[in-house]
TrEMBL record:
It comes from Sutterella faecalis. This is DSD1 family PLP-dependent enzyme. Coiled coil: none annotated. InterPro entries: Ala_racemase_N (IPR001608), D-amino_acid_metab_enzyme (IPR051466), D-ser_dehydrat-like_dom (IPR026956), D-ser_dehydrat-like_sf (IPR042208), PLP-binding_barrel (IPR029066). Signal peptide: none annotated. Keywords: Lyase. The keyword Zinc-finger does not apply. It holds the Pfam family D-ser_dehydrat.
């Protein structure tokens, strides 16, 4: 006798599949509805729109073009709301993103990660589709590799030289000799399109004044690099800067042509600690379910581990450590005046320890209770999800596809 009641019987072929039309059936449901799977990545529509407009407004105030970094959400639906035109300009961090956005009509992109030689063939293939995909590099060796590829395949690839303005990561120092040597090495279809930098040290700032100083250092450094190239006879049409902290707090972008930023679409707890945003600005969160408790430890167990939240513990080195995220109720309001964090994770388990003096008790969270977790870093948190749920007033209004992976 079949005791499965109304449960559907799945064929072996259907196991592991979650069809797009099934995901679309979530539209109109409350986030508290048990049919909504957990963990899920939620995006508050009104907060998202406010954040997108804030970034565009800042770019207009600074008198530069806005080239948003799409890596935070990787979604064409959000990109079309974020970009200043349906064709861009935009920034991507993987060739999967470049291919996905190109297929959805975005024509003006910078792949803002130093180029690996084996990826040049895919860059050329995307460009052959009529997409102005530009790459970046920071050495004579890389410039020669791109030139050799273009010569061998009879193609053209525009290149931006990456400039290191703060010793943070990669790039050429504005004053170094290799800057001009790399530009000279771009030949036979590899053409200089400009210079690009990312003020990574702005993420280490302890005050707004320090972010303002980092923004000026970013601007001054890349303008110096562009000036040296122009003095040597090179055209430098693009002078590209950007990070969310410097976008929000820059006082001047004189000499700059465009600004990039990504996480400002969602914001997160790291940005909140920097003073770039407020907790109420954070548009993305992880929806989780209470699946157990450890009474002797005063702990709740959630179905959201480090795969759902990422292992980014960036707030640990800031003024407030949020563990693996700030715990909120299903409506997105922080619990217990914002004192409750997800203190620990395993791969699929989140561990929430109630403070000893909390007004909340374990009994306030029966099995199946839905909670939201505000993330430390929105980009890696959102990245692995099959789709993202756009919500308004606790109701799912859209299911957003996005791209994953690198190739």
């Amino acid at each position: 006798m079949n005791n499965c009641g109304a449960l559907a019987i799945l064929s072996p072929e259907s196991l592991g599949k979650f069809a797009p039309d099934t995901a679309q059936s979530l539209i109109g449901l409350s986030v508290n509805d048990p049919r909504v799977p957990t963990p899920s990545f939620l995006i508050e529509d009104e907060k998202l729109e406010k954040n997108l407009e804030r970034a565009r407004t800042r770019a207009r105030e600074l008198g530069v073009a806005f080239r948003p970094h799409l890596k935070t959400h990787k979604s064409i639906v959000i990109a079309r709301r974020q970009m200043t035109s349906p064709e861009g300009p935009a920034t991507v961090s993987t060739l999967s993103e470049a291919r996905y956005f190109a297929a959805n009509g975005v024509k003006d992109m910078i792949y803002a990660v130093g180029i690996a030689p084996q990826k040049l063939a895919e860059v050329a293939r995307i460009r052959a589709l009529g997409v102005d995909l530009k790459i970046i590099l920071d050495s004579v060796e890389a410039a020669k590799a791109v030139s050799d590829f273009c010569r061998e395949h009879g193609t053209e690839i525009p290149v931006l030289l990456e400039i290191d303005v703060d010793g943070h990561r990669s790039g050429l120092a504005p004053e170094c000799d290799e800057l001009l040597q790399a530009a000279k090495a771009l030949q036979d279809g590899a053409g200089l399109a400009g210079v690009l930098t990312h003020a990574g040290d702005s993420y280490e700032c302890k005050s707004i004044e320090a972010i303002i100083a980092a923004a000026e250092g970013e601007r001054a450094g890349i303008v110096k690099a562009a000036g040296r190239l122009r003095a040597a006879g090179f055209e430098v049409p693009i002078v590209s800067v950007g990070s969310s902290p410097t976008l929000m707090h820059s006082k001047s972008e004189s000499g700059v042509t465009e600004i990039r930023a990504g996480v400002c679409a969602f914001f997160d707890l790291f940005m909140t600690n920097l003073g770039v945003s407020k907790k109420e600005d954070i548009a993305g969160s992880v929806l989780a379910t209470v699946i157990g408790r450890q009474t002797t430890k005063n702990q709740l167990i959630l179905d959201s581990g480090f795969l759902a939240l990422s292992r980014d513990r960036g707030t640990a080195r800031q003024k407030r450590d949020y563990g693996y995220g700030l715990v909120c109720d299903a409506a997105g309001e922080p619990l217990d005046d914002g004192r409750i964090i997800l203190a620990g994770t395993n791969q699929e388990h989140g561990i929430l320890t109630l403070p000893g003096d909390s007004s909340l008790k374990l009994e306030d969270f029966p099995l199946g209770t839905r909670l939201r977790i505000l993330p430390n870093h929105a980009c890696p948190t959102a990245a692995p999800y099959k789709y993202m749920l756009l919500v308004r007033n606790g109701i799912i209004i859209d299911v957003l596809e996005h791209v994953r992976g690198w190739d």
